[in-house]
Each structure stands twice: as structure tokens, then as C-alpha cells.
Amino acid sequence: MIDERDAVIETVRGRLRASVADQADPRAVARILSAAFAAPAPSRWRRWLDAWHLPVMSRVGAAVVAVIALAAGFVARGVLPNRAPVDPMAVTGEFPIPVTPASDPRAGAVATQFVFEAPAAQAVALVGDFNRWVPTAAPLVRLPSGVWTVTVPLMPGRHVYAFLVDGARLEADPRAATVVDADYGRPSSVVMVPGR
Amino acid sequence: MMPTLSSHMRAAGVALVGLMCGAPLVVTAPHAQAPSQAIALAIPDAKARQAVEREIARAVSRGLPSAPLVAKAMEGITKQAAPDRIRSAVAAQAQRLEQARGLLGPTPSEAELVSGAEALAAGIPTAMLKQVRAAWPAQSVVMPLDVLTELVARGVPPKQALERVVTLMRRGATPVQIAGLGAAVQADVAAGLAPDAALEVRARGVMSLLPSPAAAAALAPSGRRP
Amino acid sequence: MSSSSPSSPIDPSLPLRAKAGDRQAFAQLVELCYPRSLRFALHMVGNREDAEEAVQDTFVRVYHHLGQFRDDGRFEPWLFRILANRCRTVLAKRRRHAEVIQYGDVPDHDAPTAVDGLDWMEEIHKVLATLPVEQREAFLLHHVEELAYEEIAAVTGVKLSALRMRVKRACDVLRVRLAEVRRDDR
Questions:
Q1: Which residue of A has its CA nearest to B66?
Q2: How far is A189 from chain B (nearest CA, A)?
Q3: Are C148 and C4 within 8 A, CB to CB?
Q4: Which of A6, A74, B86, C38 is 20 to 30 A from C175 in CA distance terms?
């Protein structure tokens, strides 16, 4: 089968290729980066679902599988032995810390933009009570002007934060109110998120 | 034709719903618990790390939430505090959470506990937390507590801050309006206004938007907890 | 027969650096791939708003699934696979059989809007809209985005012979319909 580009196909191809500018719209790119960095990582089952092609089944087939799974659950509950509670003080090499799953943090969260000027910095991260002060949770993106920015979803209320510059220097936000924390004596910044 | 992703995802989703209905029946059998998740805190010294973890584990065994304590430890690590200081900070935060639980009872949410602990850390007297709870017995007090903390942090005398916030709560102000008050006072103080003067001006502003005391008293409390 | 690679191939180290957590590398990937992605989405779904949403959704998924990107793989087919799925989802949601697709807001950069008194872009879009989704997709991936057939097979999961047939049918329809339009215009 010969795949020919005659004059008509060449014209169509040329017009379609030229229909979008070669340079990316920086605002669109910024929106994409904010959405990507702010969105929570998909849960493990979601990643599994996306990675593997599950067998295609009809609705009837899916319903049958669901009923069988429910029945299996009831049977297993009656048959399997009960497990003893986990002792948080049990010595296992390191003391395990049970993590209480928080209620869905996404509902009611308000997208909040943070801006920090640091033209000479190589990396800037937003750390605060909303991301457990983890330096890798919310890195800022550098714009050509030397201004760094990130948008994160915050629950309504008061939040304390700072910027970690080049992984070593913690700086308060010059644009925001400052507070010295009672426990570590270091200045941090405060943002009030009003909610909707 | 290749099935669209959405159609096979829908079918798979129905099956997964079934599986998910079945699985918890096993997992939530009596005495079974969700698996614990060991969090490796970035403290190089093993003894120091275990001391922090023990502090957290002790608090959890008293029924306190682990997330705010882990966050307090991580804050110390990011702020490059000495391990012993991190351990004391975690212990102090656990104590504040426990106090807040007693003051904001009977069943405060984790968010309320955290806001209560922050208010106590800012020096707000314990009795004031009780008064905030009493003003909204069934509604989340996260926002009033956060605003109270912020007003005191800006230099408003605690008694004055409490009076204004509780009055607004009783007059039917919404959490959004109360948050607006906090943000506005924050901005006014940054612009050079005296904190108490800023609070008076902004509180009057919010008050003017609220129904009269008689109308507010006639409105039954919503009883909702967002 | 064309088995050409894209006009500006992506530096293979970029997706690997992004996979390792380098957000600047990811940002560069977005900047480089955005125009092609938007172009493909635009011609698949027919309006800018849906196209931009599909592209944004795609890059968010790419970001969260970089761990699954094979180190020895090519990035563009992997990206287009996710993007093509997103576009199909948009089209399926829209129940397009009941709708007329409006191409009015597709900008036409650089090229003249009329040849021989005819608005070629409008006519091209009308014909594209009548093509079955899989033919439109195969045509755009091969002739516009210049993916090789082997790469399109990786994108769509369809055999090479079926792909060539889809592209040929799309070309046949375009030739016939655009020739009719030219004839009618004279």
C-alpha cells in the first residue's frame, strides 16, 4: 500500500501544521505546571488501573464479577482469623507510627498562589503546615524574570509557611505578615485563606 | 474498533466497586486494623530519631492524631533544629493538642485540634478556647480560632480579640466573614495602623453586614459542621 | 512513504530527568511539546476550550505517571497515547453524533485564509469532522504530527496494516471531498 502525499494531501498537511503557533503560550504552560504540581498523586489503585489494560467486559460481566467479589468478602470474613491490634510501642527496629487518614483535603481547598523573588537562586521550595514542611512537596517554578511561583490548594484558615532557597536557607515571605514560631524560634510567614 | 478508555474503565470500575465492597468486610472484621505506616524521619542519628518517634507514638496511644505531630517534627528538620529541640517541640505540641481536645470537646475534629493547639501556642488563655466553642457548639470553630490566633499575633490584646470574634460568631457571621476580618486586620497592621484600632474598624464593618441581634436570635443555629 | 521523525525531536535526557524529579526538565518538556499537543487535540476535538483542557489533563497525567515511562522509550508516542485517549474521552462525552462541531475558533497562523477564493481551513475542518474518529486520529498522527506507523501502533494499539488502511481512507475522503468543493466553487 503506497502512502502518497499528492498536492491535496500536502495542502491539507501544510494548513493543519500551520494552524497553531510554534511557540508555546507561556500562560498556558504556567497553568499546566501549576495544575501538575498542585494535583495530588493518583492513588496506587488508580496508577495500577492506568498502567494495565484490564480485560474489556460487558456490563453484565462486570456485575457478575462484583457479586462474586461481594460473596467472597462475606465468606472470607467468616473464615479468616481475626488479627490482633498493632501495638504502637512494639519494637520492630523502628517504632511504627500509625498515620490516621485525614478526611479528604481536596473538598473546599482554595488555589493560592505564592510568589518569591530570587533571580540568583537555583531552587526554591514552599514549605509550611499545609505540606508538613516537606521540601519536595511544592517546588516553585522559575519564570524568565527571576520571579519564582507556585499555586497550591489550601484549606480555609490560617497557614504558616516559608521559602526554602537552594535547599539550605529558610526565608520568610517579604510580601506577607511574619510570625516567630513558639517551638523553634524561627520567623515564618502567615497567610489567611478565607474560603468560599 | 479499539474500545474507548472510558467504556472499559466504566466496566472495570463496576467490578472494582464490587471488590472494594468485599475487601473491607475482611479488613474491618473485629480487632483488625489498617496497617501502620512507618515514617522515616530524616534525623541521621538513630537514637535521636527513635526519641522523636517514641514521643509521637506515645501521643498516638493517647488517642491524639499523628499527622500534626509528624508535621511538627518535619518543621524542625526543615528549620535545621537540633534533634532534642525537635523532640521537645513534638512533646509540647502533643500537650497542646491534648489540652485543646479537653477544651473543644466533646468530639473536636482534627482541624479544630490543630487550630486550638496553635491558639494555645500563641499564648491565648485556655478559657478563651472554651468561650469560642460555647459560641458555636455544633459548627466548626477552625476559622474563629485561626483568626483569634492571627489577631493576637498582630498585637491585638487577647481579651479584645476574643470579645470581637465571639460577638461576630453570636451575631451570625460566617466563617468567610470572620476570615475576611482577620485578613483585613493583618493588612491594616502591615500598613501601619494600630492593631486594636484596626480590629475596631474592621469588626464594625463586618457587623454592619449582619442581621440585628433580635433577628440573629430568631435564627436557629444551623448545627452543621463543615 | 513517510517514516520520518518529528521536525524537532525531544532531547532523550529530558523525560529521564523529569522522571527523576527534575521539575525544570518537566517544564521544558511541556514547553516543547505543548504546540504539537494542542494542534493535535484541536483537530481531534474541534474547539479550543476542549483541546486546551485535554492537553492540560494529559500533561498532569504525564507528570504523575513518569515512573512508568520506559528509559529506552521515545517520549512523543507515549505522550500522544495519553493525549489521544483524552481526546477520545472528550469526544465520547460530547456525544458527537448529535452535534455539529464548530471549528470557527481555530486560528490560522501564517497561512493565507483563502486560496482561489476558498477558505481552505474551513473546508478542511468540515471534512475532518466527517471522518470516523479513528481515521481522523491516524491521519493527524501520521501526516500532521509525523509519527511513524510503528509509533502510531504504539499510540493506538492497532496493527500496522489496519493503521495504513485508516490513513489511506482518510486521504481518499479528503481528496474526493476537497476536489468536489473546488469544482463547486468554480
A1: A99
A2: 11
A3: yes
A4: C38
**Nearest-neighbour CA in chain A from C12: distance (Å):** 20
Q: Is B116 on the interface with A (CB under 8 A)?
A: no
Q: Determine which of A158, A166, A169, A190 to mutate to test the interface with B (most B C-beta atoms within 10 Å).
A: A158
Cell numbers for B129: 478556647
Scan residues 79-108 of C and list those with Cβ closer than 8 Å to B: 85, 88-89, 92-93
Q: Which cell is C146 given? A: 509525523
Give the tens place of pLDDT for each residue, B66-117. Answer: 889 989 998 998 898 998 999 999 999 999 999 999 999 888 999 999 999 9
C-alpha cell at B37: 505506616
Q: What is the pLDDT of residues B103-153, one digit of tens each?
A: 998 889 999 999 999 999 999 999 999 999 999 998 999 999 999 999 999
Domain ranges within chain C, ordered by starting residue: 8-106, 113-186
Number of compact structural domains in chain A:
1
Distance from CA of B174 to the nearest CA of A (A): 10
Is A164 within the bounds of a domain?
yes
Quick one: fold of C8-106? Rna Polymerase Sigma Factor; Chain: A (1.10.1740)
Which CATH number fits the domain that encloses residue A172? Answer: 2.60.40.10
Q: Which of A100, A137, A158, A161 is nearest to B75 (CA)?
A: A161
Judged on CB neighbours under 10 Å (0-12, 13-18, 19+), A50 is middle
